[in-house]
Design brief:
With about 280 residues, the protein is of the alpha/beta class. It has 2 domains: about 120 residues, Rossmann fold (3-Layer(aba) Sandwich), CATH 3.40.50.10170; about 120 residues, Hypothetical Protein Tm841, Chain: A,domain 3, CATH 3.30.1180. Helices cover about 40% and strands about 25% of the residues. It has a 6-stranded mixed β-sheet, with helices on both faces. Strands 2-1-6-7 form a 4-stranded parallel β-sheet, sandwiched between helices. Strand 9 and strand 10 form a beta hairpin. It is globular, with a radius of gyration of 18 Å. The two termini are about 30 Å apart.
């Protein structure tokens, strides 16, 4: 039986691509006050960002329940006896913890492998896609896990924020950092290092920040894959993708990905970013 790959909605994998590769996506929960929705199922990205832009209420997110993973794993066991479950950085979300608890409850033992991606959005998504492609080609559980880890080792993510308010409210950065950025009108480019949000650069204007995203991407060198991420401004994402297309070979043309509600709740409007997977040497 083929290896079944599982991830969460924080991977930002396009729905059709996940379906084509047979990836099981367990949704996080997004809430506005007392109203809670399964990310991407009960609340689309369009609906979420409309509310984000026009409502004063700050959205919150929560990890999938243990029961959600139990249900997913039970469904998989009907057709596959091996599962590779790859998830959001455990330092940003409790999603992996829910998954591992479910694996223990179902006594899956050696039939399941868990990977802490130490990433988010397509920084996670590219490893899931690569593992699913390998599994579809007949890879064993060990081989699919090795493919995912190789991609993660070569992944870089750079995100330009228009505001730090949402990261601060969601507890992903300290209040002092958010206040500092607001007072000085700093537009930070953040990255993930060892699964934790770190400041890569501090830029004075958003447009210069976009230029620096391009430079950071070019400094990564030859790429296997790349994605442009955005929350509310697809035009800026397409423009950045167009500039990168002029720099890289056609087979590394970047995907343009709208960040899911579960991730976008912590970024807010105006976010744009780049995920790069460096070519293996």
């Amino acid at each position: 039986m083929a290896v079944q790959v599982v991830t969460d909605s924080g991977a930002d994998i396009p729905e059709q691509l996940a379906t084509d590769l047979g990836i099981v996506v367990v949704p996080l929960t997004v809430s506005f006050g007392n109203e809670s929705y399964k990310d991407g199922i009960e609340l689309s990205a369009d609906q979420f960002y409309q509310r984000l832009l026009h409502e004063d209420m700050m959205p919150t997110t929560s990890q999938p329940s243990v029961g959600s993973f139990v249900e997913a794993y039970k469904n998989i066991r009907a057709s596959s006896n091996q599962i590779l479950s790859i998830h959001l950085s455990s330092k940003l979300s409790g999603t992996l913890n829910s998954a591992t608890q479910a694996g223990s409850m179902e006594n899956l033992g050696e039939s399941i492998r868990f990977i802490d991606s130490m990433q988010a959005s397509m920084g996670l998504g590219f490893s899931v896609i690569a593992a699913a492609e390998a599994a579809k080609g007949g890879a064993s559980l060990d081989q699919a896990a090795s493919v995912a880890k190789s991609v993660l080792d070569r992944t870089r993510i750079f995100i330009l924020f228009d505001t730090l308010e949402y990261l601060e409210k969601g507890g992903r950065i300290g209040r002092a950092s958010a206040l500092f950025g607001s007072v000085l009108q700093i537009k930070p480019i953040l990255t993930l290092e060892d699964g934790v949000i770190e400041t890569k650069l501090k830029i004075r204007t958003f447009q210069k920040g976009v230029q620096r995203l391009q430079q950071l991407t070019e400094e990564c060198g030859n790429l296997d894959k790349a994605a442009i991420l955005y929350t509310t401004d697809p035009t800026a994402a397409r423009n950045l993708a167009g500039r990168l297309n002029n720099r890289f070979a056609e087979d590394t043309s970047p995907l343009i990905i709208r960040i899911s509600p579960a991730v976008g709740a912590h970024g807010g409007p105006g976010v744009i970013g780049v995920v790069c997977v460096i070519t293996q040497t």
